[in-house]
Structure formats: C-alpha cells, structure tokens
C-alpha cells in the first residue's frame, strides 16, 4: 500500500484496533482511499471516511495495527492512539479462537464482556483463577445486536476455505454470536486449557489476546470512549488449530465491522457538533447532603457525545445541615428538595430537548425520596463518584452479570397484617440484628443482595435497570402476596444512583407506606431515623425516629 503521508484534518469518530497485518489489511480493503498518517510518535494510522447511510452523513475512521500481540502492547498502543486521535468509539477487530459447539469457523463473535483470565492465586492445592471482567459499552452492544442487515456478508472478498465459489448454503454462512470473550497472554491450542477457561464463565464463546488491554485503555482515558470487540472465528483453540481460516475470519470480522458502520448506528461527531451549535443542553441534578460537590464538577467527566453540551445545573444543597457526622435537621433537608420535580420541569420547559443527568453524595433516605419525587418516565444519565481519582464517571463501562439474590419472599398469598422489611445489601451487608432494633416481628423479612456485597459492584446503567426491575418485582409481589402490609421498611446499603432509581420504581398508587432508613454506626439504634417517602411533605410528618 503506497498511500501518501498526510496530517489529521478532522476529528475521529471510530478507532479500529487490529493486532495482525492480515486483520488490518482486511479492514483497509473495504475503505475508500485510506490515507496513511505517521507522526513523530510510534504509531501509524490509516484514515478514511465511511458513509453512514441512516445518518445522512459520514464517519471519520482511523485504523491502526499493534506492534505485537498481547494485552500489554494493546493497552500501551491504544493509550497512545487515544491521546493522539481522541476518538469517540473504539473497536477491537480481528480473529479469535472459538468454543467448539458454541460457534462455527467463520462466524463473528461480538463481546458482551471481556474476561482477563491471567490473574491467579497459586498454592499447594493448585492454581485458582481470579479473572478480571470488563463489560463492553451498552450502547454499542445494543446497536450491534440490532444490526440485522445481512448485506455485510457480500463484503467478504474471499472464498471460505475448501470452497471454490462464494455461493454458500445457509448452514455455511457466517453468523453473528454475542457472548463473553476470554483474553490472556497465550496462544491457546489445548482443549483442556479451554475447559479450564470456560469454568470462569459458562457463556464464554471465544478466546484471544488483546481485547482486555484495549478495554482498560478506553476505560482509563479521560474522555472515556465507548468500546466493543468484534472477532472472526479462525479455529477452535485445540489440537486442530492451524492457519487455514485466518484470512477468511479476518475478512469476515472486517466485513461485519464496516457493514455495521455503514448502517449508521450513531450520529457522526460532525452532526453532533452541528446540533451543539443549536444549543444542545444537559440539565445536571447535583444533590448533596454529606459532602460539598463543586459546581459543575460533572463537566470534566462527560462522555464524548455530551462533552460540548451546555450544562445547566439544578442544585439541591443540604450540606450545611450535616454536622458532627449526622444530619442535624432531616425535616429541613426534606423541605429543601420537595420542589425538585417542579424545578426540573421549569428547566425542561426552557430547554425542551435537554437530557437529564444525576450525581449525588447524599443520605440514603433523601436519595430514595428524590427518585420517588421524579418521573419514572424520564430517562436519566447516572454518574458515580470515583473515590480514588476524585472524579465522576458515567455508569457506562465495567459491571457484572451477577444477579440480585432474593430470599424471604413468601411463596403464597397470606392475610397476615403487619410490617414488611426489605434489606438491600449491595455495598455492605445489612444484618438482621440491627434491623430488628427498629422493626420488631415483621410479617416478612426480604433480602435483596449481591453475594458478597462489595463497594463499586454497580458500574453500568444496564445493571441499575436490571436490578431496578428486580426491586420493582419484589414491591409488586408484596402487594400481591401480602395485601395487608401496613408499611414497607427499606434498609439499604449501595450506591446513590441505584437508590435514586429504586425511588423511581415505587408506585404512588399501588404500593403502601414506604419508610427508608439512614444508618449511623455510633447511633442507638444504628438506623436512628428514616423518611416516609410516600407521605405528604406538606404535612411535616415524614420523619420517622424509631426507639429501641
């Protein structure tokens, strides 16, 4: 390829990372007149425009090849590329080994999660794998799952191995499979090793060597570009491993990737900039009762599509009431947020096309109350505070497939009358002994928990929505199975965003009285006050102060 050397003139929408020359060349074959760029740094890039038909525009796409295989090189190379190009989206594209029986040769696998299997504990009893997992970007996953146009297969320019013609039966066509991908530092060609890797996660469908490094670089970049991995299956990572399918698998992955981009899955950056010139706005709710959050602290953490939005803040400030480690006047804190929904509606009437974000360091009952006050029909972007970097991160990367474990919900309908307890153990375990100090002899004590509970377990909006469905289901089952419930008492340990979202799930017409409690270890009882979030704020009787 003898493309002239040029300088980057336009911002990059998509960065495509490849590990091998045949992977890179397969992508470049499908681009119109790619331009080679070699700056003073180490990396070489190829830049081209790809028409995005559904968007009536085009993407600027950069393609680069790693200097070596492996996740370390992938992380270093991607970090440099992100610094130099600042793309909005990062795609890892190439070949991978597949799990026999889950996929066939030539299929495309798209990652739901990337599992790095190398971390382990070695002791006399053997080696215990301690994998690290990254969830791919939910929006890119959604777009790839809904890309159903099969015309991308026509972009494959080589025959399948052992075939003399490109005409294939339906069984021989490449399919697109979504699942978990394992990644490490080994070229795997051993079925027993593959069995060991599959113990990490039963839904692993492929194995490769670079996606984790790319995912880490994207997650740690200040601009947080969205990431996904797309791979073509070239072997089954067992003793039959050979290079016969490398070329076809590389072309299949490239064909799916370019076909996907041509479908126009997202708005090009140029179109977003044009919209911003029409005053695109983000209304950010800054809710604080435990710690002062600097004004517009969210701006430096916004993802690419919101980075240039006009940010209008709606502040709920109760920090002056937080004294000596306690909220001195919870009722006054309640009054200060009673008009939250009205204030938000006023701003949205001024900015009718604005989106809404929420970030908070506040007491649990106030978070539930804020969510309860807000419309559950409104989509909200959630941000969480990173204690290590002291920055706010949108809940869009990382996460876990771990389900909330529900125990204590009666199997049958009962006419018992009394209170119901819900213990929600997300970050720390909420123990029954401290709850019993507040609610004596409930008719049901229900636990929703992650096993084990741990800080930072919720790192994606997808998790919040899925766990929110579980919470709402429990609330509705209480209504159905325990119709004589007088009140539901919620004891929660978890991140602010999920508390707010749970508040949104509580029905103003179906569910009974809901009391959410605040925990202070040195108080007696430890849950020394709570808020009846379903009560009438104007009555002034929302504060609940139990006695031992």
Overall geometry comes to: globular
Oligomer: single chain
At the fourth level of CATH, the homologous superfamily of the largest domain is: Nucleoside phosphorylase domain
Report the total helices: 13
Cross-sheet strand order for the largest sheet: 20-22-21-23-24-25-26
Gyration radius, to the nearest Å?
A: 26 Å
The first-level CATH class name of the largest domain: Alpha Beta
Unreliable stretches: 1-7
Give the helix level as a range of percent.
Answer: 25-40%
Mean pLDDT score: 89
In the CATH hierarchy, the third-tier topology of the largest domain is known as: Rossmann fold
Number of strands: 26
| Annotated CATH architecture of the largest domain | 3-Layer(aba) Sandwich
Distance linking N and C termini: 79 Å
Structural class: alpha/beta
Overview of the structural elements:
By secondary structure, the chain is α/β, with parallel strands linked by helices. Helix content is 25%, strand content 29%. It contains 13 helices and 26 strands. It has helices at residues 21-28, 71-85, 138-145, 191-198, 211-220, 246-262, 269-276, 330-336, 340-350, 364-373, 432-436, 461-481, 496-505; strands at residues 14-18, 35-38, 44-52, 57-65, 89-98, 108-116, 120-123, 126-129, 132-135, 176-183, 204-208, 226-235, 281-288, 310-317, 322-323, 326-327, 355-361, 380-386, 391-394, 405-407, 418-425, 444-449, 485-493, 513-518, 529-532, 543-544. The chain has a seven-stranded mixed sheet, covered by helices on one side. A five-stranded mixed β-barrel has the order 5-11-10-6-12, surrounded by four helices. The radius of gyration is 26 Å and the shape is globular.
